[in-house]
Specification:
Belongs to the NAD(P)-dependent epimerase/dehydratase family. The chain is about 40% helix and about 15% strand. By secondary structure, it is of the alpha/beta class. β1, α1 and β2 form a beta-alpha-beta unit. Bound molecules: nicotinamide-adenine-dinucleotide (NAD). The site of nicotinamide-adenine-dinucleotide (NAD) has 20 residues, from α1.
Amino acid sequence: MSTPMHDLDVPPLPSSDAPKVLVTGAAGFIGAWTLRALLFEGYCPVVFDLKEDRRLVADICGSDAANMLHWHTGDIRNMDQLQAAAMGTERIIHLAGMLTPGCRANPRLGAEVNLIGLLNVFAIAQTLHQKGVLYMSSAGVYGPSGAQYPSLQRCMVPLS
Ligand SMILES: NC(=O)c1ccc[n+]([C@@H]2O[C@H](COP(=O)([O-])OP(=O)(O)OC[C@H]3O[C@@H](n4cnc5c(N)ncnc54)[C@H](O)[C@@H]3O)[C@@H](O)[C@H]2O)c1
């Protein structure tokens, strides 16, 4: 069995009857760690990402897992690609997205990926009668002063 970097334990490979969870953006930073956590919890993660590059996943989950996971290369804006990847999964963890620098450089693309992409995930989950969707928010909703709760007032004074 291959060893990931950083002396991490290698997560177990999923069994054939493990429940499948689609992870969008799984080739990214949080995605790769999410795959690792899912493997340890006995799930069978299914990858959906623009990137075909499995190196980060191999580093964090081990190259055996990176090579054997179902890996769908596609764009979150494309409903057909997303639905094909989601078939047979019972939940979606949605992490595919563009971070602030990319959105600043191309706001239209940022809106299509982050907003329409999220709506696509909800629509597919509804169509396939999935058990749930989990998606990432940001500490930015608490504003610059680290408030205890998000506030609608702060929405009117965006940080970026
Ligand atoms: N990293 C943070 O500190 C942080 C904080 C708050 C929220 N988030 C959110 O968490 C999510 C993941 O963040 P991350 O740090 O892992 O980012 P990341 O850039 O490492 O990963 C994002 C992944 O999404 C994929 N992606 C981008 N556009 C896509 C598209 N059109 N279709 C399919 N896949 C696409 C990228 O290829 C990448 O692998 C993002 O939505 C981000 O906004 C991150």
